[in-house]
Amino acid sequence: MNLNDANTRRTILQCIVLGVFLVLAGRVAYLQLFDSKYKRLAAGNVLRSEVEYAPRGEIVDRNGLYIVQNKECYDLMVVYRDMNKQGFDTMQLCNLVDLSKEQLVKKLKEARYASRKAILVTSYIPKETKVRLDEYKFQGFYTVCRTARQYPRKIAGNLLGHVGEVSMRDVERNPDVYKVGDYIGITGLEAAYEEELRGVKGVKVLERDYGGAIKGSYMDGAFDSLPVPGLKLTCTIDARLQAFAEELMVGKVGAVVAIEPSTGEILVMASSPTYDPDELVGRQRGNHYMQLQNNKRQPLFNRAVKAKYPPGSTFKLVQGLIGLQEGVLTPSTAYPCHGGYHVGKVKVGCHPHSSPLDLRNAVAQSCNAYFCYVFRDIIENRKYENIKKGFDSWVEDVKSFGFGRKLGSDFLGEGAGYVPTSEYYDKVYRGSWRGLTIISLSIGQGELGCTPMQMANLAATIANRGYYYIPHIIKHVEGRDSLDSRFYEKQYVNVDAKHFEPIVEGMWRGVNVEGAGTSYAARLEGWDVCGKTGTAQNPNGQDHSTFLSFAPKDNPKIAISVYVEHGGFGASMALPIASLIEEYYLTDTIKRPHLVKAIKEKQWRVPKKYVE
Q1: What phi, psi does 119 have (nearest 5°)?
Q2: Tens digit of each residue's pLDDT (9 = 90 or more) over 182-241
Q3: Nearest to 576 by CA among 523, 514, 525, 536
Q4: Domains in the chain with CATH codes
Q5: Partners of 558 in beta bridges
Q6: pLDDT (tens digit per residue) in 146-163
Q7: CA 240 to CA 70: how far, in whole Å?
Q8: pTM across the whole model
Q9: How far apart are CA 45 and CA 569, in angstroms?
Q10: Residue 574 and residue 584: Cα distance in Å, rounded?
Protein backbone atom coordinates (compact mmCIF):
# COMPACT_ATOMS: atom_id res chain seq x y z
CA MET A 1 0.00 0.00 0.00
CA ASN A 2 1.37 3.38 -1.07
CA LEU A 3 0.65 5.85 1.73
CA ASN A 4 1.68 8.71 -0.52
CA ASP A 5 -1.18 7.95 -2.86
CA ALA A 6 -4.00 10.48 -2.47
CA ASN A 7 -6.75 7.85 -2.76
CA THR A 8 -5.19 5.71 -0.05
CA ARG A 9 -4.87 8.64 2.35
CA ARG A 10 -8.48 9.58 1.65
CA THR A 11 -9.65 6.02 2.38
CA ILE A 12 -7.76 5.90 5.67
CA LEU A 13 -9.17 9.24 6.75
CA GLN A 14 -12.68 8.10 5.87
CA CYS A 15 -12.22 4.94 7.92
CA ILE A 16 -11.02 6.94 10.92
CA VAL A 17 -13.97 9.32 10.67
CA LEU A 18 -16.36 6.38 10.25
CA GLY A 19 -14.81 4.61 13.25
CA VAL A 20 -15.14 7.70 15.46
CA PHE A 21 -18.72 8.12 14.27
CA LEU A 22 -19.55 4.50 15.06
CA VAL A 23 -18.02 4.78 18.54
CA LEU A 24 -20.01 7.96 19.25
CA ALA A 25 -23.19 6.47 17.81
CA GLY A 26 -22.72 3.32 19.87
CA ARG A 27 -22.20 5.34 23.04
CA VAL A 28 -25.27 7.44 22.36
CA ALA A 29 -27.30 4.30 21.67
CA TYR A 30 -26.06 2.72 24.89
CA LEU A 31 -26.95 5.80 26.91
CA GLN A 32 -30.38 5.99 25.28
CA LEU A 33 -31.29 2.31 25.35
CA PHE A 34 -29.40 0.68 28.20
CA ASP A 35 -27.85 3.10 30.69
CA SER A 36 -30.56 4.61 32.93
CA LYS A 37 -28.14 6.77 34.93
CA TYR A 38 -28.82 10.04 33.14
CA LYS A 39 -32.47 9.23 32.81
CA ARG A 40 -32.59 8.88 36.57
CA LEU A 41 -30.70 12.13 37.03
CA ALA A 42 -33.05 13.91 34.68
CA ALA A 43 -36.07 12.42 36.37
CA GLY A 44 -34.62 13.40 39.72
CA ASN A 45 -34.68 17.02 38.68
CA VAL A 46 -38.42 17.01 38.05
CA LEU A 47 -39.78 13.99 39.93
CA ARG A 48 -39.89 13.03 43.59
CA SER A 49 -40.95 9.59 44.81
CA GLU A 50 -42.57 9.42 48.23
CA VAL A 51 -43.00 6.11 50.03
CA GLU A 52 -46.48 5.36 51.33
CA TYR A 53 -46.17 3.01 54.26
CA ALA A 54 -48.67 0.22 54.71
CA PRO A 55 -50.38 -0.01 58.10
CA ARG A 56 -49.39 -3.18 59.97
CA GLY A 57 -52.08 -5.75 60.52
CA GLU A 58 -53.98 -5.33 63.76
CA ILE A 59 -54.46 -8.11 66.33
CA VAL A 60 -57.63 -9.13 68.18
CA ASP A 61 -58.17 -11.76 70.87
CA ARG A 62 -60.27 -14.91 70.43
CA ASN A 63 -63.43 -12.91 71.22
CA GLY A 64 -62.69 -10.07 68.78
CA LEU A 65 -61.39 -7.59 71.36
CA TYR A 66 -58.55 -5.43 70.02
CA ILE A 67 -55.21 -5.96 71.73
CA VAL A 68 -52.99 -4.28 69.10
CA GLN A 69 -54.15 -1.32 67.02
CA ASN A 70 -52.56 1.35 64.85
CA LYS A 71 -52.44 5.08 65.41
CA GLU A 72 -51.61 7.68 62.78
CA CYS A 73 -48.27 9.44 63.02
CA TYR A 74 -45.78 11.06 60.64
CA ASP A 75 -42.12 11.12 59.72
CA LEU A 76 -40.55 14.49 58.92
CA MET A 77 -38.34 14.25 55.84
CA VAL A 78 -36.03 16.76 54.17
CA VAL A 79 -34.55 17.01 50.66
CA TYR A 80 -31.55 19.35 50.89
CA ARG A 81 -31.64 20.58 47.27
CA ASP A 82 -35.25 21.70 47.77
CA MET A 83 -34.56 23.72 50.92
CA ASN A 84 -34.65 27.48 51.13
CA LYS A 85 -30.93 28.29 50.99
CA GLN A 86 -31.60 31.79 52.30
CA GLY A 87 -32.39 30.21 55.65
CA PHE A 88 -35.49 29.53 57.74
CA ASP A 89 -36.56 29.76 61.36
CA THR A 90 -34.77 26.72 62.76
CA MET A 91 -35.96 27.28 66.33
CA GLN A 92 -39.56 27.46 65.18
CA LEU A 93 -39.16 24.10 63.45
CA CYS A 94 -37.34 22.59 66.42
CA ASN A 95 -40.05 23.71 68.83
CA LEU A 96 -42.77 22.37 66.58
CA VAL A 97 -41.34 18.85 66.32
CA ASP A 98 -39.70 18.74 69.77
CA LEU A 99 -36.18 18.48 68.41
CA SER A 100 -33.00 20.13 69.67
CA LYS A 101 -31.11 22.51 67.39
CA GLU A 102 -28.06 20.25 67.55
CA GLN A 103 -30.11 17.27 66.36
CA LEU A 104 -31.54 19.30 63.46
CA VAL A 105 -28.12 20.59 62.39
CA LYS A 106 -26.79 17.02 62.41
CA LYS A 107 -29.64 15.85 60.17
CA LEU A 108 -29.15 18.76 57.76
CA LYS A 109 -25.46 17.93 57.41
CA GLU A 110 -26.43 14.35 56.60
CA ALA A 111 -28.94 15.63 54.02
CA ARG A 112 -26.34 17.92 52.43
CA TYR A 113 -24.13 14.95 51.54
CA ALA A 114 -27.08 13.32 49.76
CA SER A 115 -28.74 16.45 48.43
CA ARG A 116 -31.25 14.71 46.18
CA LYS A 117 -32.20 12.03 48.69
CA ALA A 118 -34.96 12.34 51.26
CA ILE A 119 -33.49 12.11 54.77
CA LEU A 120 -35.46 11.34 57.92
CA VAL A 121 -35.33 14.26 60.36
CA THR A 122 -37.56 12.86 63.11
CA SER A 123 -40.40 10.39 63.54
CA TYR A 124 -43.57 9.79 65.56
CA ILE A 125 -44.97 13.26 64.85
CA PRO A 126 -48.64 13.47 65.90
CA LYS A 127 -51.31 14.57 63.46
CA GLU A 128 -51.80 17.94 65.22
CA THR A 129 -48.12 18.80 64.69
CA LYS A 130 -48.29 17.70 61.07
CA VAL A 131 -51.15 20.16 60.44
CA ARG A 132 -49.08 23.03 61.88
CA LEU A 133 -46.07 22.03 59.76
CA ASP A 134 -48.25 22.21 56.68
CA GLU A 135 -49.30 25.73 57.66
CA TYR A 136 -45.70 26.98 58.00
CA LYS A 137 -44.60 25.32 54.74
CA PHE A 138 -40.92 24.84 55.48
CA GLN A 139 -39.42 24.55 52.01
CA GLY A 140 -37.72 21.19 51.37
CA PHE A 141 -39.42 19.56 54.35
CA TYR A 142 -42.40 17.26 54.04
CA THR A 143 -44.17 14.62 56.10
CA VAL A 144 -44.82 10.97 55.34
CA CYS A 145 -47.77 9.22 56.97
CA ARG A 146 -47.15 5.94 58.73
CA THR A 147 -48.73 4.08 61.62
CA ALA A 148 -47.40 3.23 65.05
CA ARG A 149 -48.61 0.53 67.41
CA GLN A 150 -50.90 1.19 70.34
CA TYR A 151 -52.17 -1.26 72.94
CA PRO A 152 -55.67 -0.50 74.26
CA ARG A 153 -55.51 -3.15 77.01
CA LYS A 154 -51.88 -2.73 78.14
CA ILE A 155 -51.39 -6.51 78.37
CA ALA A 156 -49.20 -9.33 77.05
CA GLY A 157 -46.05 -7.33 76.40
CA ASN A 158 -43.84 -10.42 76.08
CA LEU A 159 -46.40 -12.31 74.04
CA LEU A 160 -47.10 -9.54 71.52
CA GLY A 161 -43.52 -8.31 71.26
CA HIS A 162 -42.53 -4.97 69.80
CA VAL A 163 -41.66 -3.25 66.52
CA GLY A 164 -38.44 -1.39 65.79
CA GLU A 165 -36.34 -0.01 62.95
CA VAL A 166 -34.74 -2.53 60.62
CA SER A 167 -31.05 -3.31 61.01
CA MET A 168 -28.60 -3.29 58.13
CA ARG A 169 -28.62 -7.07 58.34
CA ASP A 170 -32.39 -7.07 57.76
CA VAL A 171 -31.95 -4.82 54.73
CA GLU A 172 -29.11 -6.89 53.27
CA ARG A 173 -31.01 -10.12 53.82
CA ASN A 174 -34.21 -8.87 52.16
CA PRO A 175 -33.43 -5.75 50.09
CA ASP A 176 -36.59 -6.03 47.99
CA VAL A 177 -38.78 -5.66 51.08
CA TYR A 178 -36.87 -3.47 53.54
CA LYS A 179 -35.08 -0.15 53.22
CA VAL A 180 -33.27 1.86 55.88
CA GLY A 181 -35.89 3.51 58.09
CA ASP A 182 -38.49 0.76 57.72
CA TYR A 183 -39.97 -0.97 60.75
CA ILE A 184 -39.94 -4.70 61.50
CA GLY A 185 -41.23 -7.00 64.23
CA ILE A 186 -38.42 -7.53 66.73
CA THR A 187 -39.88 -10.02 69.24
CA GLY A 188 -43.04 -11.97 70.05
CA LEU A 189 -45.94 -12.20 67.63
CA GLU A 190 -44.71 -9.11 65.81
CA ALA A 191 -41.62 -11.07 64.78
CA ALA A 192 -43.19 -14.52 64.39
CA TYR A 193 -45.86 -13.19 62.00
CA GLU A 194 -43.85 -10.36 60.42
CA GLU A 195 -44.58 -11.52 56.88
CA GLU A 196 -48.34 -11.41 57.48
CA LEU A 197 -48.35 -8.20 59.50
CA ARG A 198 -46.04 -5.89 57.54
CA GLY A 199 -48.12 -5.31 54.38
CA VAL A 200 -46.71 -3.90 51.15
CA LYS A 201 -45.47 -0.32 50.74
CA GLY A 202 -46.86 1.97 48.05
CA VAL A 203 -45.28 4.91 46.22
CA LYS A 204 -46.47 8.32 45.07
CA VAL A 205 -44.56 10.06 42.24
CA LEU A 206 -44.77 13.88 42.36
CA GLU A 207 -43.74 16.38 39.69
CA ARG A 208 -41.77 19.56 40.48
CA ASP A 209 -41.31 22.79 38.60
CA TYR A 210 -37.95 24.38 37.80
CA GLY A 211 -37.89 25.97 41.26
CA GLY A 212 -38.42 22.65 43.03
CA ALA A 213 -42.00 23.36 44.10
CA ILE A 214 -44.39 20.42 43.89
CA LYS A 215 -46.81 20.80 40.97
CA GLY A 216 -48.83 17.70 41.70
CA SER A 217 -49.02 14.02 40.87
CA TYR A 218 -46.93 12.93 37.90
CA MET A 219 -49.06 11.90 34.90
CA ASP A 220 -52.18 11.85 37.06
CA GLY A 221 -50.81 9.06 39.23
CA ALA A 222 -50.12 6.63 36.39
CA PHE A 223 -46.95 5.45 38.15
CA ASP A 224 -48.34 5.52 41.69
CA SER A 225 -49.06 2.36 43.68
CA LEU A 226 -51.24 2.07 46.75
CA PRO A 227 -49.98 0.47 49.97
CA VAL A 228 -51.46 -2.90 50.87
CA PRO A 229 -52.28 -3.16 54.60
CA GLY A 230 -50.97 -6.07 56.65
CA LEU A 231 -53.27 -8.94 57.52
CA LYS A 232 -55.41 -8.92 60.63
CA LEU A 233 -54.58 -11.67 63.13
CA THR A 234 -56.96 -13.33 65.55
CA CYS A 235 -55.00 -14.41 68.60
CA THR A 236 -55.97 -17.48 70.63
CA ILE A 237 -55.68 -15.72 73.98
CA ASP A 238 -58.63 -14.48 75.98
CA ALA A 239 -57.76 -10.82 76.66
CA ARG A 240 -59.80 -10.60 79.87
CA LEU A 241 -58.27 -13.81 81.19
CA GLN A 242 -54.78 -12.63 80.22
CA ALA A 243 -55.32 -9.34 82.06
CA PHE A 244 -56.59 -11.19 85.14
CA ALA A 245 -53.60 -13.55 85.16
CA GLU A 246 -51.17 -10.64 84.90
CA GLU A 247 -53.02 -8.88 87.72
CA LEU A 248 -52.64 -11.90 89.99
CA MET A 249 -48.94 -12.22 89.14
CA VAL A 250 -48.04 -8.61 89.94
CA GLY A 251 -45.08 -8.49 92.32
CA LYS A 252 -44.14 -12.10 91.62
CA VAL A 253 -41.66 -13.78 89.29
CA GLY A 254 -42.91 -16.69 87.21
CA ALA A 255 -45.41 -17.56 84.52
CA VAL A 256 -48.95 -18.72 83.76
CA VAL A 257 -49.85 -20.73 80.66
CA ALA A 258 -53.37 -21.98 79.95
CA ILE A 259 -54.35 -24.12 76.96
CA GLU A 260 -57.62 -25.30 75.45
CA PRO A 261 -56.96 -29.09 75.36
CA SER A 262 -59.28 -29.82 72.43
CA THR A 263 -57.40 -27.46 70.08
CA GLY A 264 -53.99 -26.61 71.56
CA GLU A 265 -54.95 -22.93 71.50
CA ILE A 266 -53.19 -20.89 74.18
CA LEU A 267 -55.72 -19.03 76.33
CA VAL A 268 -53.19 -17.29 78.59
CA MET A 269 -49.47 -16.70 78.28
CA ALA A 270 -48.44 -14.45 81.13
CA SER A 271 -44.83 -13.85 82.11
CA SER A 272 -44.10 -11.92 85.28
CA PRO A 273 -42.83 -9.32 85.65
CA THR A 274 -44.13 -7.91 82.40
CA TYR A 275 -44.23 -4.41 80.93
CA ASP A 276 -46.62 -1.99 79.27
CA PRO A 277 -46.10 -2.58 75.52
CA ASP A 278 -46.79 1.12 74.85
CA GLU A 279 -43.42 1.85 76.49
CA LEU A 280 -41.68 0.44 73.42
CA VAL A 281 -43.40 2.79 70.99
CA GLY A 282 -42.32 6.31 70.12
CA ARG A 283 -39.16 8.36 70.43
CA GLN A 284 -38.50 7.20 74.00
CA ARG A 285 -38.55 3.57 72.95
CA GLY A 286 -34.75 3.28 73.17
CA ASN A 287 -34.58 4.76 76.68
CA HIS A 288 -37.44 2.58 77.92
CA TYR A 289 -35.88 -0.50 76.34
CA MET A 290 -32.59 0.06 78.16
CA GLN A 291 -34.42 0.55 81.45
CA LEU A 292 -36.25 -2.76 80.95
CA GLN A 293 -33.05 -4.45 79.80
CA ASN A 294 -31.21 -3.35 82.95
CA ASN A 295 -34.03 -4.35 85.31
CA LYS A 296 -32.78 -7.27 87.42
CA ARG A 297 -36.19 -8.94 87.33
CA GLN A 298 -35.82 -9.22 83.53
CA PRO A 299 -39.29 -8.11 82.35
CA LEU A 300 -38.20 -8.61 78.71
CA PHE A 301 -37.53 -12.31 79.34
CA ASN A 302 -40.57 -14.42 78.45
CA ARG A 303 -40.51 -17.01 81.19
CA ALA A 304 -43.63 -18.71 79.84
CA VAL A 305 -41.75 -20.20 76.88
CA LYS A 306 -38.06 -19.74 77.71
CA ALA A 307 -37.50 -20.31 81.44
CA LYS A 308 -36.15 -23.72 82.45
CA TYR A 309 -37.65 -24.75 85.78
CA PRO A 310 -37.56 -28.01 87.75
CA PRO A 311 -41.13 -29.35 87.46
CA GLY A 312 -41.17 -30.71 90.99
CA SER A 313 -43.98 -33.00 92.08
CA THR A 314 -46.11 -32.32 89.00
CA PHE A 315 -43.67 -34.62 87.19
CA LYS A 316 -44.84 -37.57 89.32
CA LEU A 317 -47.78 -37.83 86.92
CA VAL A 318 -45.35 -38.71 84.11
CA GLN A 319 -43.59 -41.29 86.30
CA GLY A 320 -46.88 -42.97 87.10
CA LEU A 321 -47.95 -43.09 83.46
CA ILE A 322 -44.63 -44.54 82.27
CA GLY A 323 -44.70 -47.09 85.11
CA LEU A 324 -48.15 -48.27 84.01
CA GLN A 325 -47.06 -48.49 80.38
CA GLU A 326 -43.90 -50.41 81.30
CA GLY A 327 -45.94 -52.89 83.32
CA VAL A 328 -43.99 -52.35 86.56
CA LEU A 329 -47.00 -50.70 88.17
CA THR A 330 -50.74 -51.26 88.45
CA PRO A 331 -53.35 -48.88 89.89
CA SER A 332 -53.58 -51.08 92.99
CA THR A 333 -49.82 -51.31 93.59
CA ALA A 334 -49.09 -49.94 97.05
CA TYR A 335 -45.83 -48.73 98.56
CA PRO A 336 -45.05 -47.65 102.12
CA CYS A 337 -43.91 -44.19 103.13
CA HIS A 338 -42.42 -43.55 106.54
CA GLY A 339 -41.48 -39.93 106.23
CA GLY A 340 -39.92 -40.50 102.82
CA TYR A 341 -37.75 -42.90 100.84
CA HIS A 342 -34.72 -44.24 102.71
CA VAL A 343 -32.14 -46.62 101.24
CA GLY A 344 -28.74 -46.63 102.90
CA LYS A 345 -27.42 -43.08 102.91
CA VAL A 346 -29.98 -41.93 100.35
CA LYS A 347 -32.93 -40.10 101.90
CA VAL A 348 -35.79 -38.39 100.08
CA GLY A 349 -38.11 -36.79 102.63
CA CYS A 350 -41.91 -36.61 102.45
CA HIS A 351 -44.72 -34.87 104.32
CA PRO A 352 -46.90 -36.83 106.79
CA HIS A 353 -49.76 -38.90 105.32
CA SER A 354 -51.26 -42.37 105.65
CA SER A 355 -49.24 -45.39 104.53
CA PRO A 356 -49.15 -47.49 102.42
CA LEU A 357 -50.77 -45.79 99.40
CA ASP A 358 -51.96 -47.06 96.04
CA LEU A 359 -51.37 -45.11 92.81
CA ARG A 360 -54.51 -42.94 92.97
CA ASN A 361 -53.87 -41.88 96.54
CA ALA A 362 -50.15 -41.44 95.91
CA VAL A 363 -51.04 -38.90 93.19
CA ALA A 364 -53.58 -37.19 95.43
CA GLN A 365 -51.21 -37.06 98.42
CA SER A 366 -48.12 -36.33 96.27
CA CYS A 367 -46.08 -39.03 98.00
CA ASN A 368 -42.36 -38.77 97.27
CA ALA A 369 -41.49 -42.30 98.39
CA TYR A 370 -44.08 -43.90 96.09
CA PHE A 371 -42.60 -42.42 92.93
CA CYS A 372 -39.05 -43.19 94.01
CA TYR A 373 -40.07 -46.85 93.99
CA VAL A 374 -41.78 -46.46 90.62
CA PHE A 375 -38.82 -44.70 88.98
CA ARG A 376 -36.35 -47.36 90.09
CA ASP A 377 -38.69 -50.12 88.91
CA ILE A 378 -38.86 -48.48 85.48
CA ILE A 379 -35.16 -48.01 84.81
CA GLU A 380 -34.07 -51.20 86.61
CA ASN A 381 -36.62 -53.33 84.78
CA ARG A 382 -35.06 -56.74 84.03
CA LYS A 383 -36.32 -56.72 80.46
CA TYR A 384 -33.46 -54.29 79.74
CA GLU A 385 -29.92 -55.65 79.65
CA ASN A 386 -28.67 -52.90 81.95
CA ILE A 387 -29.79 -49.76 83.73
CA LYS A 388 -28.56 -47.51 80.94
CA LYS A 389 -30.88 -49.20 78.47
CA GLY A 390 -33.76 -48.87 80.91
CA PHE A 391 -32.95 -45.22 81.47
CA ASP A 392 -32.70 -44.55 77.71
CA SER A 393 -36.20 -45.99 77.29
CA TRP A 394 -37.45 -43.75 80.11
CA VAL A 395 -35.90 -40.69 78.41
CA GLU A 396 -37.62 -41.55 75.13
CA ASP A 397 -40.98 -41.85 76.89
CA VAL A 398 -40.48 -38.56 78.76
CA LYS A 399 -39.63 -36.75 75.53
CA SER A 400 -42.81 -38.05 73.91
CA PHE A 401 -44.68 -35.79 76.38
CA GLY A 402 -42.90 -32.78 74.87
CA PHE A 403 -40.12 -32.42 77.44
CA GLY A 404 -36.48 -31.92 76.53
CA ARG A 405 -37.36 -30.55 73.09
CA LYS A 406 -39.23 -27.71 71.47
CA LEU A 407 -42.93 -28.33 71.02
CA GLY A 408 -42.96 -26.63 67.61
CA SER A 409 -45.33 -23.79 68.45
CA ASP A 410 -45.74 -20.69 66.29
CA PHE A 411 -43.98 -18.61 68.93
CA LEU A 412 -40.35 -17.61 68.31
CA GLY A 413 -37.73 -18.24 70.97
CA GLU A 414 -39.39 -21.33 72.44
CA GLY A 415 -37.13 -23.10 74.92
CA ALA A 416 -36.49 -26.84 74.86
CA GLY A 417 -36.05 -27.42 78.58
CA TYR A 418 -33.74 -30.29 79.47
CA VAL A 419 -33.96 -34.04 80.05
CA PRO A 420 -30.62 -35.63 81.00
CA THR A 421 -29.36 -38.68 79.10
CA SER A 422 -27.31 -41.73 80.03
CA GLU A 423 -24.40 -40.18 78.11
CA TYR A 424 -24.64 -37.13 80.36
CA TYR A 425 -24.47 -39.26 83.53
CA ASP A 426 -21.66 -41.39 82.10
CA LYS A 427 -19.66 -38.22 81.69
CA VAL A 428 -20.53 -36.81 85.12
CA TYR A 429 -20.08 -40.06 87.07
CA ARG A 430 -17.45 -41.63 84.78
CA GLY A 431 -19.77 -44.49 83.89
CA SER A 432 -20.46 -45.45 87.50
CA TRP A 433 -24.05 -44.61 88.42
CA ARG A 434 -27.29 -46.39 89.30
CA GLY A 435 -30.91 -45.69 90.16
CA LEU A 436 -30.14 -44.27 93.60
CA THR A 437 -27.57 -41.90 92.06
CA ILE A 438 -30.26 -40.13 90.06
CA ILE A 439 -33.24 -40.75 92.34
CA SER A 440 -34.08 -37.02 92.44
CA LEU A 441 -35.46 -37.35 88.90
CA SER A 442 -38.31 -39.42 90.33
CA ILE A 443 -39.86 -36.35 91.92
CA GLY A 444 -39.10 -33.85 89.16
CA GLN A 445 -35.81 -32.56 90.56
CA GLY A 446 -32.19 -33.08 89.63
CA GLU A 447 -31.21 -31.96 86.16
CA LEU A 448 -34.75 -31.85 84.78
CA GLY A 449 -35.77 -28.49 83.33
CA CYS A 450 -39.18 -27.65 81.85
CA THR A 451 -40.81 -24.52 80.48
CA PRO A 452 -44.21 -23.45 81.85
CA MET A 453 -45.64 -24.07 78.37
CA GLN A 454 -44.37 -27.66 78.45
CA MET A 455 -45.99 -28.15 81.85
CA ALA A 456 -49.30 -26.71 80.65
CA ASN A 457 -49.02 -29.03 77.66
CA LEU A 458 -48.63 -31.95 80.09
CA ALA A 459 -51.91 -30.92 81.72
CA ALA A 460 -53.57 -30.82 78.28
CA THR A 461 -52.12 -34.25 77.40
CA ILE A 462 -53.53 -35.84 80.56
CA ALA A 463 -56.84 -34.06 80.01
CA ASN A 464 -56.98 -35.63 76.52
CA ARG A 465 -55.92 -39.04 77.87
CA GLY A 466 -52.79 -39.45 75.84
CA TYR A 467 -52.38 -36.85 73.12
CA TYR A 468 -51.99 -33.13 72.62
CA TYR A 469 -52.21 -30.55 69.86
CA ILE A 470 -49.12 -28.40 69.37
CA PRO A 471 -49.73 -25.25 71.43
CA HIS A 472 -50.16 -22.18 69.26
CA ILE A 473 -50.95 -18.52 69.72
CA ILE A 474 -52.74 -17.58 66.47
CA LYS A 475 -56.29 -18.76 65.78
CA HIS A 476 -56.92 -17.20 62.37
CA VAL A 477 -55.09 -15.16 59.72
CA GLU A 478 -57.18 -12.81 57.62
CA GLY A 479 -57.84 -14.25 54.16
CA ARG A 480 -56.71 -17.77 55.02
CA ASP A 481 -58.91 -20.78 55.55
CA SER A 482 -56.61 -22.53 58.02
CA LEU A 483 -53.29 -22.55 59.83
CA ASP A 484 -50.33 -24.81 59.20
CA SER A 485 -51.55 -28.42 59.16
CA ARG A 486 -49.28 -29.41 62.06
CA PHE A 487 -51.56 -27.54 64.48
CA TYR A 488 -54.48 -29.85 63.67
CA GLU A 489 -52.63 -33.15 64.11
CA LYS A 490 -52.85 -35.15 67.32
CA GLN A 491 -49.45 -35.75 68.92
CA TYR A 492 -49.61 -39.08 70.76
CA VAL A 493 -47.36 -39.93 73.71
CA ASN A 494 -45.82 -43.35 74.38
CA VAL A 495 -48.53 -44.32 76.88
CA ASP A 496 -51.83 -46.02 76.04
CA ALA A 497 -55.03 -44.09 76.76
CA LYS A 498 -56.27 -46.73 79.26
CA HIS A 499 -53.43 -45.89 81.67
CA PHE A 500 -54.53 -42.28 82.11
CA GLU A 501 -57.70 -43.02 84.08
CA PRO A 502 -56.09 -43.86 87.46
CA ILE A 503 -53.86 -40.77 87.14
CA VAL A 504 -56.86 -38.57 86.35
CA GLU A 505 -58.76 -40.16 89.24
CA GLY A 506 -55.89 -39.37 91.59
CA MET A 507 -55.80 -35.75 90.40
CA TRP A 508 -59.59 -35.52 90.89
CA ARG A 509 -59.40 -36.98 94.41
CA GLY A 510 -56.65 -34.56 95.38
CA VAL A 511 -58.95 -31.62 94.56
CA ASN A 512 -62.45 -32.86 95.37
CA VAL A 513 -62.17 -35.18 98.39
CA GLU A 514 -61.46 -33.27 101.57
CA GLY A 515 -58.43 -34.61 103.40
CA ALA A 516 -57.54 -36.95 100.53
CA GLY A 517 -54.83 -34.82 98.98
CA THR A 518 -52.84 -31.60 98.65
CA SER A 519 -55.05 -29.75 96.12
CA TYR A 520 -58.40 -29.43 97.91
CA ALA A 521 -58.22 -25.62 97.84
CA ALA A 522 -58.64 -25.76 94.03
CA ARG A 523 -62.15 -27.23 94.28
CA LEU A 524 -64.87 -25.50 92.23
CA GLU A 525 -68.41 -26.64 92.91
CA GLY A 526 -69.86 -28.46 89.90
CA TRP A 527 -66.73 -28.37 87.73
CA ASP A 528 -64.80 -31.56 88.64
CA VAL A 529 -61.41 -29.85 88.69
CA CYS A 530 -58.37 -32.13 88.49
CA GLY A 531 -55.05 -30.88 89.83
CA LYS A 532 -51.57 -31.64 91.08
CA THR A 533 -49.45 -29.46 93.33
CA GLY A 534 -45.71 -29.14 93.05
CA THR A 535 -43.10 -27.73 95.39
CA ALA A 536 -39.86 -27.51 93.44
CA GLN A 537 -36.82 -27.61 95.69
CA ASN A 538 -34.51 -24.64 95.33
CA PRO A 539 -30.99 -24.60 96.77
CA ASN A 540 -30.80 -20.81 96.40
CA GLY A 541 -33.70 -19.79 98.62
CA GLN A 542 -37.36 -20.50 99.22
CA ASP A 543 -38.80 -23.33 97.12
CA HIS A 544 -40.71 -22.64 93.90
CA SER A 545 -44.49 -23.03 93.90
CA THR A 546 -46.18 -24.76 90.98
CA PHE A 547 -49.60 -26.19 90.16
CA LEU A 548 -50.90 -28.12 87.18
CA SER A 549 -54.61 -28.56 86.53
CA PHE A 550 -57.43 -29.08 84.04
CA ALA A 551 -61.20 -28.80 84.23
CA PRO A 552 -63.68 -30.29 83.97
CA LYS A 553 -62.60 -33.91 84.33
CA ASP A 554 -64.52 -34.99 81.23
CA ASN A 555 -64.58 -32.89 78.03
CA PRO A 556 -62.05 -30.45 79.56
CA LYS A 557 -62.16 -26.80 78.52
CA ILE A 558 -58.96 -25.50 80.10
CA ALA A 559 -55.57 -26.89 81.14
CA ILE A 560 -53.24 -24.68 83.12
CA SER A 561 -49.80 -24.47 84.70
CA VAL A 562 -48.73 -21.78 87.15
CA TYR A 563 -45.15 -21.36 88.32
CA VAL A 564 -44.08 -18.83 90.97
CA GLU A 565 -40.40 -18.59 91.72
CA HIS A 566 -39.64 -18.72 95.46
CA GLY A 567 -43.39 -19.00 96.12
CA GLY A 568 -43.15 -21.83 98.66
CA PHE A 569 -45.54 -24.78 98.67
CA GLY A 570 -47.51 -25.48 95.51
CA ALA A 571 -50.79 -25.06 97.38
CA SER A 572 -49.79 -21.72 98.91
CA MET A 573 -49.21 -19.56 95.84
CA ALA A 574 -49.53 -21.29 92.45
CA LEU A 575 -52.71 -23.25 93.29
CA PRO A 576 -54.95 -20.29 94.21
CA ILE A 577 -53.78 -18.33 91.16
CA ALA A 578 -54.62 -21.26 88.86
CA SER A 579 -57.92 -21.87 90.61
CA LEU A 580 -59.05 -18.26 90.23
CA ILE A 581 -58.14 -18.24 86.54
CA GLU A 582 -60.09 -21.48 86.01
CA GLU A 583 -63.08 -20.05 87.87
CA TYR A 584 -63.07 -16.88 85.77
CA TYR A 585 -62.79 -18.79 82.49
CA LEU A 586 -65.39 -21.46 83.31
CA THR A 587 -67.99 -19.29 85.07
CA ASP A 588 -67.24 -15.80 83.70
CA THR A 589 -67.21 -14.49 87.25
CA ILE A 590 -65.19 -14.52 90.47
CA LYS A 591 -67.05 -15.72 93.54
CA ARG A 592 -64.00 -15.57 95.79
CA PRO A 593 -62.90 -11.92 95.79
CA HIS A 594 -61.34 -12.49 99.21
CA LEU A 595 -58.93 -14.93 97.58
CA VAL A 596 -58.01 -12.40 94.90
CA LYS A 597 -57.24 -9.88 97.62
CA ALA A 598 -55.21 -12.42 99.58
CA ILE A 599 -53.10 -13.32 96.54
CA LYS A 600 -52.41 -9.66 95.79
CA GLU A 601 -51.51 -8.88 99.38
CA LYS A 602 -49.67 -12.10 100.18
CA GLN A 603 -46.10 -11.48 101.13
CA TRP A 604 -43.60 -12.82 98.64
CA ARG A 605 -40.03 -13.05 99.77
CA VAL A 606 -38.04 -11.25 97.08
CA PRO A 607 -34.74 -13.06 96.39
CA LYS A 608 -31.57 -10.99 96.53
CA LYS A 609 -30.92 -11.52 92.82
CA TYR A 610 -34.07 -9.54 92.03
CA VAL A 611 -33.35 -6.62 94.35
CA GLU A 612 -32.49 -3.45 92.47
Answers
A1: -115, 135
A2: 899 999 999 999 999 999 998 888 776 655 566 666 676 677 888 899 999 999 999 999
A3: 523
A4: 50-235 (3.90.1310.10), 239-610 (3.40.710.10)
A5: 551
A6: 899 999 999 999 999 999
A7: 21
A8: 0.88
A9: 74
A10: 16
